[in-house]
Amino acid sequence: MKLKHLQSLQLTSYPIEVSRGHLKLEPLSGHENLSELELSGVIDNPSIIVNTNGLPQNLTRLTLVNFALRNDPMPVKCLVNQKMNGRKEE
C-alpha cells in the first residue's frame, strides 16, 4: 500500500518496558507530504533517523519517545519553537 498523501504518522512498539519491542523502519524520504512523525520505542536501525537523507524534506516535527541514543548525532542547529525536552542517559 502506498500512502502518497500521508501528512502525519505515529508509530509505537509495544511493550516498551517488558521485552522492548522494536520498530523496523525503512527510509521515509519518499513521503513528500509527511510533516509530522512520532516514533515511540526502540528502532532497529536508528541510522534512518540519524541520517537526514532518510527523512522527508518537509518534516517540521519529529518526536522521539522512549528512544535510546547514547550520543546525540544531530545537534540542534535551529530550534524554531525554542523548546526541547529530554534527558541524556549516562
Give an account of the 3D structure.
A 3-stranded parallel β-sheet has the order 1-3-5, with no helix packed on it. A two-stranded parallel sheet has the order 2-4. It has one domain. The protein starts with 7 loop residues before the first strand and ends in a 25-residue tail after the last strand. Helices cover about 5% and strands about 20% of the residues. The mean pLDDT is about 70. The chain is globular, with a radius of gyration of 13 Å. It is mostly beta strands and about 90 residues long. The protein has one helix spanning about 45-50; strands at about 10, 20-25, 35-40, 40-45, 60-65.
| Contiguous helical run count | 1
Alpha-beta classification: mainly beta
The total domain count is 1
Q: How would you sum up the global shape?
A: globular
The ordered H/E elements are EEEEHE
On the 0 to 100 scale, the average pLDDT is 72
Q: Which regions are unreliable across 5 or more consecutive residues at pLDDT < 50? A: none
Estimated helix fraction = under 10%
Main-sheet strand order equals 1-3-5
How much beta, percentage-wise?
15-25%
State the distance separating the first and last CA atoms. 41 Å
Radius of gyration over all CA atoms, rounded: 13 Å
Q: Using DSSP, what is the number of strands? A: 5
Oligomer: single chain
Largest sheet: 3 strands, parallel
Which tags fit this structure?
three-stranded parallel sheet; 4% helix; mainly beta
Summarize the structure.
The chain has one helix spanning 47-50, and strands at 8-12, 22-23, 36-40, 42-43, 61-65.
